[in-house]
Amino acid sequence: MSLEKLTKLDTRWIYLLFIIVTVAPLISPLGLPLKISDDTRIVFDTIDAVPEGGTVFFGSDMGMGNRGETQAMMVAVLRHLFTSDVKVISVCFYSSDSPILLEEAVNEIGLANYDKEYGVDFVNFGFYEGREATLVAFGVDAHAFLNVDYYGTPISELSIMDDFKGAEDIDLVISLSGGEIFPEVYLRQWQTIHGTKVTGGAVAMIYPMLVSYVASGQLSGLLASSRGAAEYELLINKPGSAIIAMDSQSLGHMVTILAIIISNLGYFASKRSKKGGLDI
Amino acid sequence: MGSVVGRRLAPVILTAIFGIVMILNFFLNIPALASFTAEAQRMFVPIVASAGVVGGVNLLLYHFTSVSRRRGDWPLSALLIGTFFFFLVITITPGLESFYALMYPAIVGRLKEATWALISLFMVSMAYRSFKIRNLETLLFTLGCVVILFGNAPVGEAIWPGAGKALRWFMDIPTMAGMRAITIGVGLGIIAYGVRVMLGYDRTALGEFSEVG
């Protein structure tokens, strides 16, 4: 067969191969080894270092579309938070999908399994429109900004909010970002003004946009997409869906590299043949 | 004439006042400025919510017109109107919260996930069709992609132990340099745009698309 034909493959064959290699490991995992990166370890250590009784702001800034990449990350980080003696306050500034995803994650984990109580150790305030400006307003005075939580409970009935005023009282912000570079917003509006420590995670698409903040020390580590989630599951010793997905991701990446190689073999063969060279 | 001046000048003056107060509040510690800024930021939430209502009404008007005039893909417009009212009713009707919590992830959530997942197929197809090494630039681009794909996959490190280090180098040096340049450029651009808006040179935000100066 002429290698030139490699440039004219029906892409549906590539789709089929890609689907097979990504679905098969979900059914029968290969158990490929996974090395924990420094960035993931820094996120873990940063969360571990929150003082007892401290307050963590959990920014669930993701949408339903990237649930496959971010939901496991959210579950793993929340599990870690609930094993610690910290209060977790969540307001979503990115999408109306976010509180639903947060609720799903909390239901999956089960507050009771960690001896935590809603309204005392954790609260979900749902989604507030207005993005950066809303986030600033919350940071200045949360009580002037929020009236009820996601389920309509008045803020006065949530004891977790008794001693909480705004960003000044936050020991750590965890921003898990789906479609926009949300951790950057917390750096800009809370860290710059109130000195708030920020860590988080992001989907693969926006991870490169945030690496410079990790290098500068403004972001205390960063979870990189589902791989970061899988590493985090290993660190907290609670293997979950992200670890299972890693084999699938590995093989998917290999098929993509194979597609690049095949395409270039065909391309160089066709170039050579146009120049009058021999068909290989 | 007066109304034209008012219509054009008033928004520019208001923008300038709010903008300057916000900037001053960032740099100065004056309680009066802080309280004005906090109030302005709280006012922003109902303004954005009102904009959402205006957007919804505009969307409906457009699609009602499409259906009534049987324009192009009018059945899709009809579907949009139906979906709009379906979700509006189950969102605002008391007692239907659990139904909403069931329907939204089941319909909108799954559609969004499917769309996102389809990107992976397009990515692999694009890699096959586009990543051809035609010159030095495409060679570097393709190498970068291979390093990222190899380094991010756990199997990559199993095949070549240096894959993780190569990825780290790629992220820490060329990617970071590029991103810093973009971030600084965007920052400077935002400052320039902000100054132009506050001085009234750029009125695109007011619906005027021709440049004044």
Explain what the structure shows:
The complex is a heterodimer of chains A (280) and B (213). Helices cover 49% and strands 11% of the residues of chain A. With 280 residues, chain A is α/β, with parallel strands linked by helices. In chain A, strand 4 (172-177), helix 7 and strand 5 form a beta-alpha-beta unit. In chain A, helix 3 (67-83) packs across helix 4, helix 3 (67-83) runs parallel beside helix 9 (225-235) and helix 5 packs parallel to helix 7. Chain A is elongated, with a radius of gyration of 23 Å. The model of chain A has no long low-confidence stretch (mean pLDDT 90). Chain B is built from seven helices and no strands. In chain B, helix 2 (31-68) crosses helix 3 and helix 5 (136-152) crosses helix 7. The model of chain B has no long low-confidence stretch (mean pLDDT 87). Classes of the chains: A alpha/beta (280), B mainly alpha (213). The interface between A and B is large, with 60 and 52 residues.
The tally of beta strands of chain A, per DSSP, is 6
What quaternary form is this? heterodimer
Count of domains of chain B: 2
Shape of chain B: extended
Q: Tell me about the largest β-sheet of chain B.
A: none
- Count of discrete alpha- or pi-helical segments spanning 4 or more residues of chain A: 10
Low-confidence stretches of chain A: none
Name the chain pair with the biggest interface and residue counts per chain: A-B, 60 and 52 residues
For the record, give the distance between the C-alpha atoms at the N and C termini of chain B, rounded to a whole number: 21 Å
* Number of distinct beta strands of chain B: 0
Low-confidence stretches of chain B: none
Tell me the helix content of chain B.
Answer: over 70%
Overall 3D shape of chain A? elongated
Fraction of residues in β-strands of chain A: 5-15%
Structural class of chain B: mainly alpha
The mean pLDDT of chain A is 90
